[in-house]
Amino acid sequence: MLGERPIALAKNVLRRRIYAPQAYAPVRNTAVVPIVHSECMALASWLPVVWRCRSNAVELVTVRALLDDQRAQPTAARALLPLRLRAYPFIFDPARPIDVASAGMLDDIFADAPTDAGATITSVNGKLGRATTMRLALLDRIAAETAITGAIGAALAERDLLEPWPLKFEIDGTAIGVSDLMIVRRSTFDSGALAPLVTQHGLVCATVLGLHRISLFRAGSLLAAAKAFVNAIKAEDHKPPPRVGALAVAMS
What we know:
- The chain is of the alpha+beta class.
- Helix content is 38%, strand content 19%.
- It is flat.
């Protein structure tokens, strides 16, 4: 989960080191990630783009896997990171709504898989590092696009144009899946019920709706990846331990 331990970007925190996003377990493993409208074009080619219920609202998300484990993600899509993951470990304050005035924070999470020495958030003279500047710019982009992205989802919900998407399966007795997902009712694409939304929100809305519908076919790749993951885990669990003699030879 993103935003487990948010802390302010101030004082000694600014001298901490940050690493490539993939160095952090939440980036590698988080299955469902909130997104904004401009991401749909890249993500819909590989992953479902849908809505998720959150309290009294819905948010646009992409589904990377059926469970929070990178090994359950389609291999070809693992390097495709939504903006929030590309900006990590910088995050928004989870205690307040996102808007253009939102300030970035640091998720105080240990990088468990660094591949280099990383870089400090600021230099010794207090100047923001290149990696910091690039990731905070991604947060600014998200903040700027959150309002219209949220307005489209809210309009769909208010008009009762969303229906549950039960993305749940059972694989060899193991139940997996993602709850609280919503998709646009299939009948609305032919009924003209979406026309007022497109008129109100323009091309952005039309693009999101079109890519959303196309992206639903990507659920098949999520299921295939989940099956491969579950089967691999079960095979590993049933793998006999090495013989003592074989182990001794391997270690000699």
